[in-house]
Write a structure and sequence with these properties.
The structure is a single chain. By secondary structure, this protein is an alpha/beta fold. The protein folds into two domains: 152 residues, Rossmann fold (3-Layer(aba) Sandwich); 186 residues, Dehydroquinate synthase-like, alpha domain. It has 15 helices and eight strands. The strands form two sheets. A six-stranded parallel sheet has the order 1-8-5-4-2-3, with helices on both faces. A two-stranded antiparallel ribbon has the order 6-7. Strand 4, helix 5 and strand 5 form a beta-alpha-beta unit.
């Protein structure tokens, strides 16, 4: 990647109390020319039910924008929304929801070249600002598509405070994963002709550090929410600058992908699966795990695979599958032999909280 490569940055990142109730003022402040342009709001039926007042208010603020309830987080759904946007001369897509909604709205905006305003209802992963959308393709199979990052990101701290704790924990997990991802990125660069982009690396490291070294551990405090929001956005920008997901995704993500693809019945969020993967990844990389473990403990993040329904045999198989789940992505898994005894030992240690 040469330094003349162009990349996009969001024009606005607002993290404010009740931001959803004055989103039009925030947008006016940063991108005044889109006020008055035709817009749609994309969300999911159950969220439209829960947040009816806020979503109706946002629709009113943007010229009584039509509220579109999406059926699935799929490629077809994103294309159908993009088709509507193009045919009806809609200029702005406002995505309100979690990762599923935001990825679908983001890709629809990318295809239709509409302005995309991202309004998360939870901070469950770094997809809110990333240049990628993970969408269903055929059946439950999912694929990652490159796309444009949001023009504006508006985080309402009250929404995040009231979101389920598990979703915030998931966002913390996705942020902490950068520790092992950055190690794998450097390892990959040393084995190939590719280079580590220093600026993207620094941004991803700052994203990790800001949460890992945060003194405020109350996940419902505004200070913590502001820090986590910025950390997730920094991760997205690191990927945009690097032109790949390498600053945020390494062997721990391959483990999570193996669960998603081969064990769809395991009910674990992406961020928590990734967090679970950072412990073994750290051990494979010969990095110290004590700091990560005490961090997880302090935030009440469970590292026992059995608590997610993952048996010892499944755990070993997931790591075996992790090697093949994304061909061509070099990580520490290419350096080590598959060692069932070691994996069983790691599983037992994680079951005991190590």
């Amino acid at each position: 990647m040469n330094q003349h490569t162009r990349f996009n940055l969001p024009i606005c990142l607002a993290v404010e109390e009740d931001a959803f109730f004055h989103s039009d003022d925030i947008v006016k402040r940063y991108i005044p020319d889109i006020i008055g342009q035709k817009a749609i709001v994309v969300s999911e039926e159950f969220l439209i039910g829960i947040y009816k007042e806020k979503i109706t208010d946002i629709s009113r603020d943007f010229g009584n924008a039509e509220i579109v309830s999406m059926n699935s987080a799929s490629f077809d759904e994103a294309v159908a929304i993009a088709k509507k946007v193009c045919i009806e001369d809609i200029k702005v897509i406002i995505g309100i929801g979690g990762g599923r909604v935001l990825d679908t709205a983001k890709y629809a905006a990318h295809i239709s070249k509409a302005v995309y305003i991202c309004m998360p209802t939870s901070l469950s992963n770094d997809s809110l600002a990333s240049p990628f959308s993970v969408l269903e393709t055929y059946g439950k199979a999912r694929k990652t598509f490159a796309c444009k990052i949001p023009t504006a990101i508006i985080v309402d701290t009250n929404m995040i405070i009231n979101a389920p704790v598990g979703q915030t924990l998931s966002g913390i997990g996705d942020t902490i994963a950068k520790h092992t991802a950055l190690y794998d990125w450097k390892l990959s660069a040393s084995k190939t002709s590719s280079q580590v982009d220093d600026f993207a690396y620094a941004l991803s490291r700052m994203s990790f550090d800001s949460v890992y070294h945060c003194d405020q551990q109350d996940m419902k405090s505004r200070v913590f929410i502001r820090i986590l929001s910025r950390a997730l956005v920094m991760g997205g920008l690191a990927m945009e600058i690097a032109g790949s997901s390498r600053p945020c995704s390494g062997s721990e993500h391959l483990f999570a992908h193996a669960i998603e693809e081969y064990y769809p019945d395991i009910k674990i969020s992406h961020g928590l699966a990734v967090a679970l993967g950072t412990i073994p990844a750290c051990i494979f990389q010969r990095q110290d795990i004590d700091g990560l473990l005490s961090f997880f403990k302090a935030h009440g993040l469970d590292v026992d695979p059995a608590s997610y329904g993952i048996t010892k045999d499944m755990f070993a198989d997931m790591w075996e599958k992790a090697r093949t789940v994304r061909t061509g992505r070099i990580t520490v898994l290419d350096e080590i032999k598959h060692d069932r005894v070691q994996l069983d030992e790691i599983y037992s240690r994680m079951a005991e909280g190590i």
